[in-house]
Amino acid sequence: MAKRGILRYRGYDIQDLAENCEFIEVAYLLIHDKLPTRTERRNYARLLNLNSMLHEDMQAFFRNYPEHAHPMAVASAMAVSLSSFYPEMNDPEQEKTISATRLISKIRTIAAYSYKKSIGEPFVYPSHKLTYCENLLNMMFSSPVADYEFSPVLVKAMNQLLILHADHEQNASTSVVRMVGSTGADLYASVSAGISALSGSLHGGANQEVMQMLETIHKSGGDVDKMVQRAKDPQHGFRLFGFGHRVYKSYDPRAKIAKQVCMSVLEKLGIHDPLLDIAMKLEERALNDEYFIERKLYPNVDFYTGITYRAMGFPTNMFTVLFAIGRLPGWISQWYEMQSDPHKKIGRPRQAYCGPTRLTYVPIDKRTAS
Ligand code: ACO
């Protein structure tokens, strides 16, 4: 499907899900293999709310990180820390439901706390009165002195962007989650490793890099040609962030939707962001360039998301955490799928060694400097 630019979750087209669903419905779909009924969705939303607070003692961790700590590093550390605060239950079925719900719910609280710490503001608790995405936005942007004013346009866009990221077969971070889980490590440790893998600039970290690249172009007068030339120069080692994909050799279907979401949000809110003009110019320039055509390089999911996140008020270093929040249901369902396999084995790739095969031991005094 990927080669034809089609993405479906459990048979449902990504476009249909992004247009019609809330993120928690898609999370439910990935974990329970079916879209929830109205009652199931209400119960799931309630369960997510019941699991939204962090153990009060975890606040000490956030307080002691430096202001400039990257929220992905904090998120990874906090995800694994959850296992110490919430030890495994004896009932495997209950454990499955609760630990998945706990992670999906608390990751928002973790993300918002790391942001609040970085700007020196008090933590905002989650509220049972709010929906999943409202809670995320409220914990990020409200404060004891100012309420957050919800915009239905932004809440919808938040749901859509999280849905776009929810699952994507064996990408690097998902494979890491499965690999760690294959050893018998718990879900929290596996997800923590996934967050670390996602942080890299060739993977989820690209959404942050895209924004920095667009800002660089903007500051230098808006000339996209220079950036395209740089990306084509093999000596430079630079890549156009938000372009190219290991699997998609046509337009990434998620990028198409992310672009529509971005344009619609900016239009509805009456925002003119010069970075959107630059992104569209850069896309057009690259898509008409022989280098990009030959290599089948198209915008990927990370190309347009950052401009929408910026319109919502998120700082650039939070973008990859938003990706992680979206990807969690995918990681969790993949982890459980692997655990339920009766023939499950530890992941153990083999390696083709290319160095010398037999050397005579040399005592340290007789070794020569290389
Ligand atoms: N800019 C310029 N050239 C590129 C780009 C790019 N973004 N991506 C690939 N190429 C070139 C490579 O230099 C290579 O050229 P060559 O054949 O002359 O050596 C050719 O295209 C093939 O590239 P590979 O590295 O083999 O492609 P691969 O499938 O391994 O990499 C990847 C995929 C990592 C996504 C790559 O396209 C890239 O680095 N993109 C930029 C980072 C990015 O946006 N990452 C997000 C990916 S989506 C996600 O993870 C959620």
Q: Summed up, what is this model?
A:
By secondary structure, the chain is mostly helical.
Structural features, described:
Strands 1-2 form a two-stranded antiparallel sheet. It is an all-alpha fold. The mean pLDDT is 96. It has 17 helices and two strands. A hairpin with a 2-residue loop joins strand 1 (8-9) and strand 2. Helix 13 (253-269) packs parallel to helix 16. Acetyl coenzyme *A (ACO) binds at residues 171, 202-204, 206, 231, 239-246, 295, 297, 300-302. Residues 171, 202-204, 206, 231, 239-246, 295, 297, 300-302 line the site of acetyl coenzyme *A (ACO).
Please bin the fraction of helical residues.
55-70%
Which H/E pattern describes the elements?
A: EEHHHHHHHHHHHHHHHHH
User: For the largest beta sheet, what order do the strands appear in spatially?
Assistant: 1-2
Beginning-to-end CA distance, first to last residue:
51 Å
Please summarize the sheet with the most strands: 2 strands, antiparallel
Rg calculated over all Cα atoms = 22 Å
**Small molecules bound in the structure, each named once:** acetyl coenzyme *A
How much of the residues is beta strand, in percent?
under 5%
Low-confidence stretches: none
Write down the overall mean pLDDT: 96
Number of strands: 2
Shape descriptor: globular
